[in-house]
Amino acid sequence: MDSENPDALANDSPKALPDGRFAGREAFGRLVREALACAAREGWREIILSDATFADWPLHERSVVESLHAWSKSGRHLIMLATRYDEVMRNQARFVSWRKTWGHIIDCRLCRVASAADFPSVIWSRSWFMHRLDSQHSLGVCGHDRERSVQLREALDERIRDSVPGFPSSTLGL
Questions:
Q1: Cα–Cα dist 73/44, whole Å
Q2: How far apart (Å, rounded) are the C-alpha atoms in residues 7 and 171?
Q3: How far apart are CA 87 and CA 68, in angstroms?
Q4: Neighbours of 58 (CB within 10 A)
Q5: Looking at 12-26, 58-72, 126-140, which range is the least confident one?
Q6: What are 67-96's pLDDT values in tens digits?
């Protein structure tokens, strides 16, 4: 354990999130599951989930929704950023149901002007990030690197500024 580096404490726990490259859909799905479970354990205050469609994210899985439910407490905030949410609404029923319950802490944003091919596929928190650089092959990097995290957050903030509200938690009708 590195007593000079307070971030090293998080890396010493047996369930710490990894640093480095990842490859493949299985590794990507595992990282999503592990990140959201870690968010619940560690009480991350803010999470950003970004992907063009979230089509291949395991948001439909019971364990993912249970992690999100455990994470959902007062003072927490989740931002979702996408080019469209039709895949989520059609194929991620557990997540859609959870989103209805916790709509007050979730800000879903829609980026219509963005190209799906160039859209960032990311999980971001103040303590850890995962950036899928190639969505087709699920290749990317993850870690605790502060400089890379700040750059990623700046890029996400730019997308958020260019977005509009999307994927409402409920639809009101007559």
A1: 10
A2: 42
A3: 19
A4: 19
A5: 12-26
A6: 999 999 878 999 999 999 999 999 999 999
Structure tokens at 155: 């890029």
Lookup result for tokens 């859209």: 119
At position 174, the amino acid (one-letter code) is L
CA nearest to 33, candidates 65, 56, 55: 65
